[in-house]
Specification:
The chain is an alpha/beta fold and 137 residues long. Strands 2-1-3-4 form a four-stranded parallel sheet, with helices on both faces.
Length: 137
C-alpha cells in the first residue's frame, strides 16, 4: 500500500464531524440535535486552547464559533479552516435553530466539495463543436 492509498483510506473512514468551539452547554445541546438531523456522525466540542490540535486530528467539515469567540482571532480561525478544508460557521446571540441548520447544511456542502479528489487526467480530450476541416483524400 502506498502513502496515497493510506490517505484515501483515512478520508473514507473519517466520520462526518463538526467542531464546536464553545463552553456553553445550551448551545452545545442545540447543535447536537442539528448535527443529527444533518447526518453528522460526531459533534466534537473544544475550547480555544485545544482547537488547533483537535481540528487537525479530527478534520471536521465545519468549525462552529459563537460570534464573540470568532471575533477574537477570525483571520487565524479562517486559516485553520482552509488548512483542514473545513467551513466556518458563526453563531450570534439569539440565533434561531433554523438559521443554524441552514448555515450548517451550507458549510457541510462547501467542505465536502473542497475535499473531492481532483479528477484523474485522461489521454482523451474533449474537442469543442465547431467548424471542421474536410478530410483529405
Amino acid at each position: 500500500m502506498t502513502h496515497g492509498d493510506d490517505e484515501a483510506t483515512k478520508a473514507v473512514n473519517t466520520p462526518r464531524s463538526v467542531l464546536l468551539v464553545s463552553s456553553a452547554e445550551e448551545l452545545a445541546a442545540r447543535c447536537r440535535g442539528m448535527c443529527l438531523r444533518a447526518r453528522v456522525m460526531l459533534l466534537v466540542e473544544s475550547d480555544l486552547a485545544a482547537l488547533t490540535n483537535t481540528a487537525v486530528e479530527r478534520k471536521p467539515l465545519a468549525l462552529l464559533f459563537p460570534d464573540d469567540i470568532y471575533a477574537f482571532d477570525s483571520a487565524e480561525f479562517d486559516a485553520l479552516a482552509r488548512d483542514i478544508q473545513a467551513s466556518v460557521v458563526t453563531l450570534e446571540p439569539g440565533i434561531t435553530d433554523e438559521v443554524i441548520e441552514a448555515r450548517l447544511a451550507d458549510a457541510l456542502l462547501r467542505a465536502e466539495v473542497l475535499r473531492q479528489p481532483e479528477p484523474t487526467s485522461s489521454r482523451y480530450v474533449l474537442v469543442p463543436d465547431g467548424p471542421r476541416r474536410a478530410k483529405r483524400r
